[in-house]
# Entry
Amino acid sequence: NQYFKRASVRSNLDFKVKNKLDLKFNVVVALPFSRNTAYQGDSGDPFASAVLFDPTAPIRNSVTGQLTSQSGFGSLNVSPVLQETSQFVDGNNTDALGTGTITYHILKNLSITSSNSYETNYGWQRQLFGLGTSQTVVNGITAGFAQGNSTWNHSVQSSNFLTYNLNRGDHALTLVGLYE
# Structure
């Protein structure tokens, strides 16, 4: 986990328009940035490699001074130190979510609520696996590789509730009907 940064903005607004009418607006925007946080727990993960790699293997080759790539015996995994220093997986994401909620109090114990949300998300990820990573050594690839991808999606959700509350002394009964 390197270079993780996140910027977030949140706004909540509540209004009582009339005795029987409530309005709420929520907006959330998040902008996370990360490097090497998307490890999947397999042999490409430096943390998993550390468990499987030969603990007696030197970190550097005594003749060349370069990082040791593989153990001389017992493990096909790449040195976790080499793995961590030879790969970069950068991610960036922008997520914005807005929700509007209106509640109308029909009777003292009966209300109808409509909550509507819209979300948009855009993200990209860049990957660079250099020589000496699990993607190259184990698979016999003699050159590293780079890859990039992006996603963009939108979603809308509408939830409508009919709620009945009845309080009698120490007892309460709440009935909710939901349509989405």
The chain has a mean pLDDT of 83.
